[in-house]
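Hi team,

Filling in the usual template for the complex we talked about on Friday. All components are listed, including any nucleic acid strands or ligand strings, so the model treats them as one assembly.

SUBMITTER: L.P.
PURPOSE: interface mapping
COMPONENTS: two
RESIDUES: 918
SEQUENCES:
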Amino acid sequence: MYKLEKSGSPLYMQLYMQIKEDIVNNILKANTKLPSIRKMSSDYKISKTTVESAYSQLYAEGYIESHPQSGYFVSKDIVQNFTSLPIEKSNQQIEKQYKYDFYQAKHSEDVFPKKLWSKLHNKVISSIDFGSYPNKQGDLNLRKELSAYLSESRAVICDEEQIVICSGFSDSMFIISTMLKKFTSSIAIEYPGYNVVQEVFSLQNYKITNIPLLKNGIDLKILKNSKDKLLYVTPSHQYPTGKTIPISKRMELINWACENDAYIIEDDYDSELSYNNRPIPSLQGINDNQRVIYSGTFSKALSPAIRVSYIVLPKKLVPIYKKIFNFSFSGVPIDIQKSLELFIKEGHWDKHIRKMRTLNKKKHDLMKKAIKEYLKDSVSILREGSGLTILIKAKIDMDWEKLFTLLEENSIKVYSTTCDSNLKDNTIYLGFGGFKEDKISIAVESFSKQWFKAAKNTN
Amino acid sequence: MYKLEKSGSPLYMQLYMQIKEDIVNNILKANTKLPSIRKMSSDYKISKTTVESAYSQLYAEGYIESHPQSGYFVSKDIVQNFTSLPIEKSNQQIEKQYKYDFYQAKHSEDVFPKKLWSKLHNKVISSIDFGSYPNKQGDLNLRKELSAYLSESRAVICDEEQIVICSGFSDSMFIISTMLKKFTSSIAIEYPGYNVVQEVFSLQNYKITNIPLLKNGIDLKILKNSKDKLLYVTPSHQYPTGKTIPISKRMELINWACENDAYIIEDDYDSELSYNNRPIPSLQGINDNQRVIYSGTFSKALSPAIRVSYIVLPKKLVPIYKKIFNFSFSGVPIDIQKSLELFIKEGHWDKHIRKMRTLNKKKHDLMKKAIKEYLKDSVSILREGSGLTILIKAKIDMDWEKLFTLLEENSIKVYSTTCDSNLKDNTIYLGFGGFKEDKISIAVESFSKQWFKAAKNTN
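RESULT (copied from the run log):
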């Protein structure tokens, strides 16, 4: 007997659930005939439609079978009782909020133009078609705006057909590494360098050659000997050292690529933010735009949380990209693409970059001053003058384990270059982007207290 | 002599550009000493700062070198003249807009709740930290909402730690295929099946085994013989045939996975939209949630343009995922994630799904009626009753080339199952999602005119 209650879930659901339970628990055995719809309906004083709905659901899920002219039967093959186990809750990993976080790729919360972003979003949304898949390579108009910007500001030579809109740097690298698999199975990477490139290309089974950095960029002799046909570099602002590859070396790189039918991935992650000089024109623009895959991002200058990056392909690679990724769509939501298009088109992006340059320079100078004041000559500054971080190296003997323990206890987070690159000589990023201006000095002061506590007593 | 004009770009830029040009054109030869800053300043009646800025930029880019105590010199290694070639414009591929587009994964423009989406976006934006990288797996609160929804609506058993927020289905598949590379190098895929799975896993060098569909799901004997340890299926709503795997077969699949230490990818792309029955409970929820990787998306029920999908990992795979993708961030912008979280939390998602079920059923019935009216018995209906499409097969002799030519000429677009699956027997999707209700009948009528014109005369 089934218990059907007028209150609660729909009657057909109650009937369905109870019959299902009986089948699962083998109370209704295989091949048992179910009462006819008419009989069920009159026995329980419910409508035929209710019984039909319950049977129809059981049928759809395969619990019962329908035999023409003779009715519904419990299916033969319900072989196994099953129960849903209660789920054990995982230990939740709440990310710790630090009092002072010196992360090198972070902006203070006041940097992102929220009101403007909202306004643009409201403006674009009415004309968006949310019902269709968007353009595979990224919205055409956004790509047009980007190509104009890149030409003007980064001396990149391209049209919109060469641009692919991606969901952040690792997505850009996944696309490149997937696209070039048939072309080559190894890549040369500047050393030290940004670890994400190594991670992605390793996951795609590329052999990695580390090309050591000399004073003026990577060691060309080692590159040439490697026989690699793909090179990753950060020519405008080397990561993590901050160096710039001079023009002569750039041309040698281009020549190497031309002579060896090779490609160069130019990662231009933050050079538009350069504040001590004008941004260095891109490597891509030097030559005939056939050998350089240019990679850019909105993470560094606008926001790492909006997840938009892009690559510019040499013309030759465009049809190859289109063929390989014919099934795939840019991962950037259409409203974000349209907002960004308007952001660039209306001139906000240019303004924002100028504002960021000024702001970063101010923060940089405050940080440098604080380092001199509080860390004095216990450190040397390895890199400064651009980006969102100052790179320091200890000049005193340091108990590193003790330092990081003390910092953790005091809710201070600093990052070593070993975390995100293979530069392994105890250099530390002191990122200033995440602090409002008035917090920089006190952050460095707080850091310096633990720093000196962890210094080894060298009496 | 340099020409510096008071109007136009900044003086230092003019000086920098002209010196650079002279160097590039070999007018200023290697090792030439540049005039001192003081001399330049007095010769041109410009400030020392202006000259310094110009020299500093040339230095940063490597055009000149600085020799201590003797000044600036043109660099030795500018080996090659270079010019930026004018860029040839590519042929722009504007996507054709059809008068009647029968695409099977499309919604009419009135379906997406634009006003609500705007409102939610405005609401969440004030509390977002745009300055930091978001959670790697996807926003924690969105994952919590999703896990509650999946448990309630799809009988998926999981907590938020098992969920990864992805940028659409192919991104989901890229993550799974990358994660499982070390576990296996081959995958069994239901045949016919959705082509994107095959594309992604092939790009990742997996060997593909096609497992033919029988009446009640894939052929288990062939699966067992294949020795594969990874299987892709669409158990609730097979693509493209629309079939459902009955409960007995589901349990056999789970048993197969348990016995063989194998994983099943359950692609549950649109079963929440089922309108003839309640949605079939997921395969993932049947067992102990250790063998099924569940894949879901917002593309089918909400919008393909917002690019949000998700996967639910078995607990065992969570640490493996975290280790492999430690460097990578979910590609979904934080404002989209937060808007979506609120969309689910405030109950709009449930309401939306109910609305979509009713609407789709209405459109489906209109389309079916129109097919009977205009195509009469020239076609058989292979699949109906769920999703956004009716699958038809010609019962008359058809000149297919002529048909597609005629359709193209009349701005009508239909899709064959060969376009996105390997079902190759001239079946055609008549998708209804993209039409407003009052356009369905006329769309089918227009299609039918070309259909009968292309029929072979079998006198």
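MY TAKE: Chain A has 14 helices and 16 strands. Residues 11-93 of chain A form a domain with the Arc Repressor Mutant, subunit A fold (CATH 1.10.10.10).

Thanks, L.
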